[in-house]
Task: structure prediction
Amino acid sequence: MKSAPKRYAVIGAGAGIGLACAEMLLSQGHEVSRFDLDGAAAGCQRFDVTSETDWHNIPLEQFDGLVVTAGIRSQQHIEATSVEAFRQTMDINVVGAFLAVRQAATAVQHQERDQPLSVVLLSSAVINKSVPGQLAYSTSKAAVAAIVQNAAKELHGQNIRINAVAPGSILTAMTEDGWNNAEHSQRMRSEIPLQRPGNPNEVAPIIAFLLSEDTSYVNGSIWPVDGGWTA
Result:
């Protein structure tokens, strides 16, 4: 069902899944405000997901949906991971998601709305598929899934619904080095039933679907988009 034009905010819209999502929503006739740490990217406004001030400055009560794809991934074995690197991953991936949900809930809790504000966060397939060298990243994405499920329960009746997508190995700047490595590529193709990496344009439609009124009864869910990797 095609919905009337909506207004969405996409955090992390400068590249990868966030960019693909913003472009898809625009192509569907929606109004999209783009935000990214790189304020010069893809017409984005500069935005730091770890900044309470930046979150306070977005009038989320004026939007129909919020997408947060901003994040980082570290690739280090446990003994080589510094506390600083671990904390940075938690700060961006987990604190950023927490601030998004808190600000969204605060903005709409007393508002009269036709439909709840739809929030979509980015978890990852690695919450269900252990990958050596990604302890910090997988821990952070498991925390994002926990935020989604707990917030959906805690914020019942407060004009908000919250879901997440859990992408597998999607070909972006974050993963291209691995896919350019012959050994890694061969191993991943053997593990993924579709035998290839995903594309950001294959994740964006699921995010757009979760934002839409077609999923008005979907709340607190984590949607895998991984080519069957975690099946």
The two ends are 29 Å apart (CA to CA). Residues 116 and 160 are 5 Å apart (CA to CA). The mean pLDDT is 94.
